[in-house]
Amino acid sequence: MKPYSKDLRLKVLDAVDRGMDRREVSGVFGASLASMKRWLKRRRGTGPVGARPIPGPPARKRAVLLEWLPSQLENNPDLTLDEHCGAFEEDSGVRVSRATMRRAIPRLAGGRPLKKSLP
């Protein structure tokens, strides 16, 4: 889920500052009351209300997997997810779960289906 933009956050806080009811602001801008409360608290405490960086290390598998996957699916369209996972681990040395592979295939350009072709 992507964070709200800084521009939207500033507009919401400006509307609250002008005395607009928070529920009305929520309806107009589509931001939740809890988010507004968090933004107001953060502005009082530290000042800036921009989105915080995503915690943890950056994802490394997805970029490598999405680069490798199109040629793999082109050459071996009828392999199972487990077989694709095994081939990826052989080629790159990086292990991915079946769930990761299942989510990566539809993300490719053209949205490839997960269905098998009949023999």
Strand content: under 5%
Average pLDDT rating: 87
What's the number of helices? 6
- Which regions contain 5 or more consecutive residues with pLDDT less than 50? none
Q: Kindly give the count of domains.
A: 2
Structural class, please?
mainly alpha
Strand/helix succession: HHHHHH
The gist of it:
By secondary structure, this protein is mostly helical. The chain has 6 helices and no strands.
SSE arrangement:
Blueprint: H1 6-17, H2 22-29, H3 33-45, H4 61-75, H5 81-92, H6 98-107
Helix pairs in contact: 1-2, 4-6
Explain what you see:
About 60% of the residues lie in helices and about 0% in strands. The chain is mainly alpha-helical and about 120 residues long. The chain folds into two domains: about 5-45; about 60-105. α1 runs antiparallel to α2 and α4 (about 60-75) crosses α6 (about 100-105). The protein is elongated, with a radius of gyration of 22 Å.
